[in-house]
């Protein structure tokens, strides 16, 4: 089919355009490092980073530590995100709860990870608890704020419809408010996952004996720059992949939306 | 039967109270089709909201089958100006809304209603894929599934083009003849009011009150081009013109 053919070639073109910048940077980088124009200890060549990557995979070191990191990030996200979702719904439903809780939560929201991390370590030690809680603290707020906004922006007119159709209070929540705020909740989930990875790095850099953050920190003390690069690349890749998965899920669940795809897609 | 007696409604506004409805008195027999017509601000939509139970801040008595209206409910189906469908539900789920399609009886009735409002083949379509007329028919089916005693329609076809509007009027008359639901239909379209109603209630603004009620004693289906239709139309129009004149003053059209 002509149309399908066109779409595929267009997609290939987009992929090519998107890859243009990183590929040329890689080429220049490789050239500069191979020519000895920069200190190889500070900036290793892409080739040696790739070799390091291969070595870490074949030794199983990378997979093991990535598994540990992913587990921590997931626990923290589920705990913090889950609480954020619940709090967002609760505060969204009731002005009274908003008055009670929102000011305090907004106060806590702006606290940086690095400021509270020492406290968490003092309270909960260097174990898993402090790490998961630090990640949860970060994951809480994007979901809280976006769920809250989603609930509050439900079309008022539909509440009249719900009244005329005799929706019970429970039905109004599950059949009107939650589906209507799902787009905002998804935005919150994506932001929360991003913050979870951020919190993970902070937690693992602060003190840990496993995980990708630990690998980076450990490599720093031995000036193994290529290992640091591998760690950074892994974080970037995993972040992008999880985001793509959530986006896919979002596209499935929000098929009813008009404005899912931006203009010019 | 719907009985409205001594109904008064005032809105509080920054510049003092505004009388929206003044001494409304009206009786609508079960199964009757009544249309309401009048300029903007005559309170016809407010009257409909009160009958629906969506507005309870009024004085006077509004009774459906002898019982005062306490609040909104399925026995008083309401069709808004916009279809107000749930955008995340497809057509059949929108009609079912808070009823489960897994219930065989509900499923069967939804199928029948889809047939009645002529939407066969669009069961799985989402609201964004529907035209304005189709969406409004979904809204009508959604109200009818609850077997309302009375159907309240607030300028439901106002946003539609002339052809779609004529079609929708025929669909609505079909439904009425099938179900014998009492219809209260608010419009600002003179032809629509005369074409649909057994009685046309003409309303006047400032304060909103009923100016006159004209019986349209024509058999259905009506012919717009017929001489008796035109005669009744001009009778309503002349009443309507008496209404329009005092309405043209500063602040008209709010």
UniProtKB/TrEMBL annotation, chain A:
UniProt xrefs under InterPro entries: MetI-like, MetI-like_sf
Pfam families: BPD_transp_1
Domain (ABC transmembrane type-1): residue spans on this chain: 62-246
GO annotation terms (biological process): alkanesulfonate transmembrane transport
Major place of residence: membrane
Highest taxon listed in the record's lineage: Bacteria
Transmembrane parts of this sequence: 12-32, 73-95, 107-126, 132-155, 176-202, 222-242
UniProt keyword annotation of Transport present: yes
Record's signal peptide: none
Family: Belongs to the binding-protein-dependent transport system permease family.
Record protein name field: Sulfonate transport system permease protein
Species: Paenibacillus phyllosphaerae
From TrEMBL, chain B:
Residue ranges of domain ABC transporter in the record: 2-230
Top-level division of the source organism's lineage: Bacteria
InterPro entries, A to Z: AAA+_ATPase, ABC_transporter-like_ATP-bd, ABC_transporter-like_CS, ABC_transporter_ATP-bind, P-loop_NTPase
EC number(s) given by UniProt: 3.6.3.-
Molecular function as annotated in GO: ATP binding; ATP hydrolysis activity
Broadest EC class assigned to this enzyme: hydrolase
Keyword vocabulary terms for this entry: ATP-binding, Hydrolase, Nucleotide-binding, Transport
Pfam family, one: ABC_tran
UniProt name for this protein: Sulfonate transport system ATP-binding protein
Provenance organism: Paenibacillus phyllosphaerae
